[in-house]
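User: Some background: our group keeps a shared notebook of sequences we're curious about, and every so often someone picks one and asks for a predicted structure to add to the entry. Today it's my turn. The entry only has the sequence so far, pasted here. Could you supply the structure so I can complete it?
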Amino acid sequence: MLASVAFYLLKSGKELIHEPLVKAIISGGGVKLKDIQYVQDDPDKGLKWVLDAREVRFSEDKKTILFSDFHLKMEPQDRPFFELKGSRGDYSRDTGEINLWGNLEGCSGNGYKILTDHLLISETNGHVSTDNPVRIFGPFFSVTGQGLFVDLVKERLQILSDVVTHLEQVPLI
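Assistant: Of course. Here's the predicted structure to add to the notebook entry:
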């Protein structure tokens, strides 16, 4: 689940930077926008996403985007939706990294939820990571631990330490 979230975040971050409308807005010096909603609907890629943010700021050199109080909703055609809310984030075109901070809460249409305070998404390496505590919930389980590493290419998720898993009783057929 988290791998698909990170994948869509990576794609949405790239598309946000490359969108012609955004290029037109950021011509000139640094720009600050308030209460924005950005919608990307690409039937060829089978994905629609909507980013709402209280504030978005572009650096003067157009290489960094900062945003606060964000809500991102991704609606793939062939998978359940995924939503991610958080306090703030930034995207660096130079490093290809997206940093997200502050009460991050993600949930999917098929009943999965993730909570943490920081995520680092590396476009270059196809990785998502954090050293912070992580909680993941599913329909019949919960996992908590310290740190997270996701390899988006291999579709592998690893909680790094202090892992505790709780399994709910599942009715036998």
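Suggested note for the entry: Confidence is low (pLDDT under 50) at residues 1-28. The two ends are 26 Å apart (CA to CA).
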